[in-house]
Design brief:
The complex is a heterodimer of chains A (639) and B (384). Chain A is an alpha+beta fold. Chain A is built from 22 helices and 20 strands. Chain B has one domain. Classes of the chains: A alpha+beta (639), B mainly alpha (384).
Chain lengths: 639, 384
């Protein structure tokens, strides 16, 4: 067997070579494993983490908005929506039909669900309907065991307990628009809502909070398998307003009798806006849920302008409510004295033009006090003429006209106080004295917001440069602010101011005053004020010759605006209210007939409730910690 | 002479002799490796015996039948039917081309009801048996002439081309390499291999033109896996991430994040080694490789102790075939070679490979049992 032995030897040699080759290859394999699993371990571990960890952002709950007593004006409500998880249903159409037997589903929703289910991963829930009512939610919840793949999801929806009542103050939230994106991932979340108007917009950064994060382990298909870590982020901070929800509600109700009203109630000492109503209003919830085209169309084309905040953005000729400013400009400048008498024959002529008094027959000879009381136009034409436009404009600005007051929500307009410079730059023509006369009765080119008119009254009543504001640092402590904000003195001779205030007292509380009919009969609560009627259109010579048409025959849009501004109580003013009833002028009455009763009711209610000082009632501070009642004290001696 | 008898010169081996001759150590090693496979399939199903582990255990148990049969049948019988076996495998390959069931986009299966048989897997064994027969009978001693290489080259090339056309690049590669190694063992001169390599390089464009698009994509992906990380490069990239992140000691049994989160495709079949290396780290991977090395060393020892050329070439061919399974699969998942469809023997989920591999070990045990049998060119025992 030499052949076999030789063959075996040869084979063994080659087998050894083969084995050597295999060992080499295995060595290469081991080296490769070592390279991947030891040298490059960190790199691959990082890639593995990136693979499986998905960072998701969580929308923080938005801060609440409280009124001065801690009543919630804006909060977050649980929002229930019914969803279908396609992969868990046997058939989506069957599931939809089953849900359709429990709640209404529109055909549009049905189409959207089927389309979305086809487009997205089968494990991504598709919303069938959001904003379920409690009953709808309950009906589905009960049937869930028989509805595989159907689930109820919860989300937070911005809620305004007072609905449209405070819409213009609070504003609303809505989905973020393209141009609001600034790189903050929070803004890119589909569920995030951003403040679009009012306090919601102005305080948005404070209210929105910071995004939380959730680290989710996902598989290769993007399905979340489990949550690894969670950071809830910072919930938005609460915001406290100076508003009194009860007053706001009262004013809203009071204004709803008229077509279109702007009304604002101020704490004259602190500048707190206690109520701000622009009527009609809108439902701010419409925006957080998403507005339909038809609703938007209705809101934006309504001639009464429900979307506009008329208190801060409505521009009206202040009319006779401007006269206190004119009087002070003339008194301060020495153009008139308190005893200066001016005769009113019912009109005054200047060059070729005739300027009429609202009282056709004239007021006869009168002094400042009566001129205010009876709102004599001729007296103020002459007073304005003597003071001159420069003094008028300067005094008007000191009272807050002609510029933005710096309110802490956006949308405020500055109005217009015409002067020589303005005339020159806008028209290129020189100032005419006739314009001074018109300015003297708050007409012509003068434009002011109701808030400016109220601010004027607050500055008159306190002699200080009160600036109105909505946001407070904290809730009202029991008994009122211990250290109310202090405003710089107005710098107008107090004696002159009190003369004007006397005149305004007479407007309401003396027989013959323009608003005597609207006086407050309870002496402790009596108010002083000034009416105004501002023309929307020019009264033509034809009308003067043939008699004015009764306002009821004039189209609503062309009727005069009725204005009234007042402070109360007369002795030591605390509350100020200004009201403009758009196109509310009725023949012979104007501001005193339509606007004054609203102001009267609001001021009376305000003084009775006394939100500037009132110790909060338990029912209105459900959210606040119960106030500690001292054992001793607070008891009347001998009681 | 029955098929259960063999002349070892002095006396025929009885059935009891054969059973005693079975290499129980080898079988124990196979059981250990398979058990690792069961555990990994249990893990791959996120801690469930369904759907893979239990079925794989049943297959392993079933595969003992062909293995033991192959081990106990007389080696001379295998010698005599070796060409018929080869012809059967070839016919089956042609048959699947004509009437195959589509599986994984490639027609490779014959559904026998109980298991799906992959004839190309069977061919890996048959070609070794046929070549062992051929070289056993070659009269020349250690100097194989070129003319004598035409027939065995055809034995390798015909199934390789058929399998490549199926298309199954991995199996074709294994057939060609196994054939070449058997040639090498049989004494083909080294310059022939050099010439063959040159010819292969020249034929590469031809092979390229015969490849399917996905095979070409795999090759280009292998050369630069980062060019298409979400397409064809996705598999190998994810495999490397899973492996690398396993580190030295792994993430723990059933704690492999990449495999369990489905980032790793085919984790129960071709990429199961990745899963082992992710969950048990470098230590686990090397341990498994060491177990395989032991099996292969066992095969080499058995082959070299055989006193007939048929047994020696058969044993070495089978051991090499097993080595190729392990090497091609692991080299593929670690990104050393392109992704080709070769399972990790005894561990990857699948019936065909399990039966084939166990059949191969049956023959290896057969060689061991019949190591002292001498066979002449006709398959009869040689009188000393």
């Amino acid at each position: 067997m030499p052949r076999d032995t030789q063959q075996q030897k040869f084979l063994t040699r080659r087998a050894a070579l083969l084995a050597g080759g295999q060992v080499l290859l295995t060595g290469a394999l081991a080296a490769r494993l070592y390279q991947l699993q030891v040298f490059e371990k960190d790199r691959y571990r990082l890639m593995a983490e990136e693979n499986r960890i998905n960072l998701r952002f969580l929308v923080p709950p938005r801060g609440r908005i409280f009124d001065r007593f801690g009543v919630e004006l804006a909060n977050n409500r649980q929002n229930y929506r019914v969803v279908i998880v396609p992969e868990e249903t046997a058939d989506i159409t069957t599931a939809l039909n089953a849900i359709g037997r429990l709640i209404d589903i529109s055909d549009a929703d049905r189409h959207r669900v089927l389309r979305d289910a086809k487009r997205k991963h089968a494990f991504v829930p598709v919303v069938v309907r959001a904003n379920l009512s409690w009953q709808e939610m309950a009906r589905i919840e009960v049937a869930i065991p028989e509805l595989p793949g159907v689930a109820i999801e919860q989300g937070l929806l911005r809620n305004y307990p007072y609905g449209p009542n405070a819409a213009h103050v609070l504003g609303y939230v809505a989905a973020v628009s393209e141009k609001e994106l600034n790189g903050d991932p929070l803004l890119e979340l589909p569920d995030f809502r951003i403040g679009k108007a009012g306090v919601e917009k102005a305080q948005d950064l404070k209210l929105r909070g910071t995004a939380g994060t959730s680290q989710v382990e996902v598989n290769a298909y993007g399905r979340a398998v489990r949550e690894i870590a969670r950071n809830d982020g910072q919930p938005g901070q609460d915001v406290v307003l100076g508003l009194d929800a009860a007053m706001q509600e009262y004013v809203t109700k009071r204004c709803s009798n008229e077509q279109s009203v702007a009304c604002v109630l101020l704490d004259a000492l602190t500048g707190d806006i206690l109520a701000l109503v622009s009527s009609p209003s809108y439902d701010p919830m419409l925006f957080s849920a998403g507005l339909t085209q038809a609703t938007w169309q209705d809101l934006s084309t309504d001639p009464r302008n429900p979307l506009s905040n008329k208190v801060i953005a409505g521009l009206y000729p202040p009319g006779s409510t401007f006269k206190p400013v004119v009087a002070l400009a003339a008194l301060e400048g020495g153009a008139i004295t308190p005893d200066t008498t001016i005769s009113c024959p019912g009109y005054v002529e200047l060059g070729d033009a005739t300027f009429h008094c609202w009282q056709h027959g004239g007021h006869g000879t009168l002094r400042l006090h009566d001129a205010i009381k009876r709102s004599c136009d001729v007296f103020f034409y002459e007073t304005a003429r003597r003071a001159g436009i420069d003094r008028l404009a300067a005094m008007a600005r000191r009272f807050g006209f002609g510029q933005q007051l710096g309110l802490d929500i956006t949308g405020e307009r500055g109005g217009l106080i015409p002067d020589r410079d303005w005339k020159l730059t806008t028209t290129g023509a020189a100032w005419q004295q006739g314009e001074t006369l018109n300015t003297g009765i708050g007409q012509g080119s003068v434009l002011a917001t109701p808030l400016q008119i109220a601010t004027m009254a607050a500055r008159l009543a306190t002699g200080r440069q009160i600036v109105p504001h909505l946001v407070r640092k904290e809730r009202l402590p029991p008994g009122g602010d211990r250290r109310p904000p202090s405003f710089a003195p107005l710098g107008v001779t107090p004696h002159f101011v009190s003369l004007v205030l006397d005149g305004m007292n007479a407007v309401v509380n003396e027989q013959g005053g323009t608003a005597y009919a609207a006086r407050i009969t309870e002496p402790a609560f009596s108010m002083g004020g000034k009416s105004g009627t501002s023309q929307v259109r020019r009264i033509t010579q034809y009308e003067r010759d043939h008699g004015l048409r009764p306002e009821s025959e004039i189209p609503w849009k062309e009727r005069d605006h009725a204005l009234f501004v007042a402070f109360a109580p007369v002795g030591s003013p605390r509350y100020v209210c200004a009201t403009v009833v758009e196109h509310g002028g009725i023949e012979g009455g104007g501001g005193s007939a339509v606007a004054a009763p609203i102001v009267r009711d609001v001021l009376l209610e305000a003084q009775k409730r006394d939100p500037a000082r009132r110790v909060p009632q338990p029912d209105s501070v459900a959210q606040a910690a119960p106030p500690a009642l001292p054992e001793s004290g607070g008891r009347a001696p001998g009681g | 002479m029955s098929i259960f008898s063999a002349d070892i010169g002095h006396r025929e081996l009885t059935f009891a002799d054969r059973v005693r001759g079975i290499n129980w150590g080898l079988i124990f090693l196979l059981c250990v490796i398979s058990s690792i496979g069961f555990a990994m399939l249990y893990s791959a199903a996120n801690g469930s015996w369904q759907p893979w582990a239990s079925k794989q255990m049943a297959r392993f148990a079933f595969a003992f039948i062909p293995m033991l049969a192959a081990a106990l049948i007389d080696i001379r019988y295998w010698f005599r039917i070796s060409y018929w076996l080869y012809a059967l495998a070839l016919v089956l390959i042609v048959a699947v081309d004509l009437r195959g069931v589509i599986g994984m986009g490639a027609q490779r299966w014959i559904d026998l009801g109980v298991i799906q048989l992959q004839p190309s897997e069977l061919m890996k064994i048959a070609v070794v048996v046929a070549l062992a027969h051929y070289f056993h009978c070659l009269p020349t001693e250690n100097n194989v002439r070129l003319i004598e290489l035409i027939a065995p080259a055809a034995l390798v090339a015909v199934p390789a081309v058929l399998v490549l056309k199926q298309p199954d690049l991995g199996t074709a590669m294994m057939l060609l390499i196994t054939g070449a190694i058997v040639f090498f063992l049989a004494g083909v001169r080294l310059w022939v291999f050099a010439a063959g390599a040159v010819a292969a390089a020249a034929a590469a464009p031809l092979a390229w033109s015969m490849m399917r698009d996905y095979q070409r994509a795999r090759l280009t992906t292998f050369l630069s896996p980062d060019t298409d990380p979400l397409g064809a490069g996705y598999h190998i990239m994810q495999s490397k991430i899973a492996l690398g992140s396993g580190g030295l000691f792994g993430k723990g049994f059933m704690l492999g994040t990449q495999t369990h989160l489905s980032f790793l495709p085919e984790r129960q079949t071709d990429f199961i080694f990745t899963m082992i290396a992710e969950e048990f780290g470098l230590v686990g991977g090397l341990t498994l490789l060491a177990l395989y090395a032991l099996v292969i060393a066992y095969g080499f020892t058995i082959a070299l102790r055989s006193r007939n050329q048929f047994g020696r070439i058969l044993g070495l061919g089978l051991a090499t075939n097993f080595f190729l399974y392990v090497f091609i699969n692991t080299a593929m998942v670690v990104g050393l070679i392109p992704v080709v469809g070769v399972p990790l023997p005894l561990i990857s989920y699948g019936g065909s490979a399990m039966v084939t591999v166990m059949l191969g070990f049956g023959l290896l045990i057969n060689v061991s049992i019949h190591r002292d049998v001498r066979i002449n060119r006709l398959g009869e025992s040689q009188v000393l």
